[in-house]
Design goal:
0% strand, 268 residues, 72% helix, Serine Threonine Protein Phosphatase 5, Tetratricopeptide repeat, mainly alpha
C-alpha cells in the first residue's frame, strides 16, 4: 500500500483517500471491540490499516503545508496503532518542521525502535541527530540507509551524510560522500552545491567552479548557492564571475542574510 519512499515521506494515494472517505478515518480504537481471539486479531488488523490511511493523509497534508490538519491525522493514526513505526516517523517529521526538537527526537527514537531496518527512518533520524551534534550516531544511521540494497533513494542518505561531515568539519569525507551521491544519480541541487563547497574546502577550486557551472545550468540560484559561488570566485581570482554573482545576490535576494553579510564585508 505504501508507495516509493522519498526522503522518509510518503505519497498520498487515491485508494487511501477513498478508504478514508469510506469511514476508516474515525477516532475509536477498534481493538477495544470483540470478545474472541479471532475478533481481536481482525480488529488489530483493522487498526493497522486505519493507522496507515491516516499516516498517508498526514504526509499528504504536510507536503501541502496544512500542518494543523496533518497533526490531527497523525495523532489519529497513533491512536489507532501506537506500534506502527511509520506513524511515529511522520509525526517526527512534522514535529521537526514545527521546530519542536525535543518531541521530534522522541518520535524519531520510537519510530527507529519499532522498525530499525527502515532506511527512510534511519536517514531522517540521522539528520536529526546530526543537527544535535551527534555526528557518529548520525553517520551510522546514514550508513544503514545508503547500504540497504532495497532503499530506492540511497543518494538522499549520501547527501545527508556529506552535509553532516561538512557540519563536523570533515571536508575530505564530505567530498567522498557527495561524489558518491552524484554517482548514484542524485539530481538534487544540494548535491551539486555540497560537492562544490567540499571541493572549495579541500582546495580544488577549479573543479569547484566547474561544478557550480553545472549547478547554474540546471537550477536557479539561492542565496546559499550564490554565497558558495562567491567564495569560489574569490579563491580563483575570477573578478568577472565574482562581480556577476554579487550582482545576482544583491538583485534577487537583497534582504537575505547572505546579501547583508556581503554588504557588511562578510563575503568581500
Amino acid at each position: 500500500m505504501m508507495q516509493r519512499r522519498r526522503n522518509g515521506t510518503m505519497s498520498l494515494t487515491l485508494g487511501l483517500v477513498l478508504a478514508a472517505a469510506l469511514g476508516l478515518g474515525g477516532c475509536a480504537n477498534l481493538s477495544q471491540g470483540g470478545d474472541g481471539g479471532g475478533d481481536v486479531e481482525r480488529y488489530t488488523s483493522q487498526n493497522r490499516e486505519a493507522a496507515k490511511v491516516n499516516t498517508e493523509l498526514a504526509a499528504g497534508y504536510m507536503e501541502r503545508g496544512e500542518l494543523k490538519v496533518a497533526m490531527e491525522k497523525i495523532r489519529r493514526a497513533i491512536d489507532y496503532d501506537n506500534g506502527y513505526a511509520q506513524a511515529h516517523h511522520v509525526h517526527a517529521l512534522l514535529l521537526d518542521r514545527l521546530g519542536e526538537e525535543r518531541k521530534a527526537g522522541e518520535a524519531y527514537r520510537k519510530a527507529h525502535r519499532l522498525d530499525d531496518d527502515d532506511p527512510g527512518v534511519a536517514n531522517n533520524y540521522g539528520g536529526y541527530l546530526c543537527r544535535q551534534g551527534e555526528y557518529d550516531r548520525a553517520q551510522a544511521l546514514f550508513r544503514t540507509a545508503y547500504d540497504d540494497a532495497l532503499y530506492e533513494t540511497p543518494e538522499f542518505a549520501l547527501v545527508n551524510s556529506g552535509r553532516c561531515y561538512q557540519r563536523a568539519g570533515d571536508h575530505e569525507q564530505a567530498l567522498v560522500q557527495f561524489r558518491r551521491a552524484i554517482d548514484e544519480g542524485a539530481r538534487r541541487p544540494d548535491a551539486l552545491r555540497g560537492l562544490a563547497q567540499a571541493l572549495y574546502e579541500t582546495g580544488e577550486v577549479d573543479e569547484a567552479a566547474d561544478v557550480m557551472q553545472r549547478y547554474e545550468r540546471r537550477f536557479r540560484h539561492t542565496p546559499a548557492s550564490l554565497a558558495t559561488a562567491i567564495r569560489i570566485d574569490k579563491a580563483r581570482g575570477d573578478d568577472q564571475a565574482l562581480a556577476n554573482h554579487r550582482l545576482i545576490l544583491r538583485g534577487r535576494f537583497p534582504d537575505s542574510p547572505e546579501a547583508k553579510a556581503m554588504q557588511d564585508g562578510g563575503n568581500e
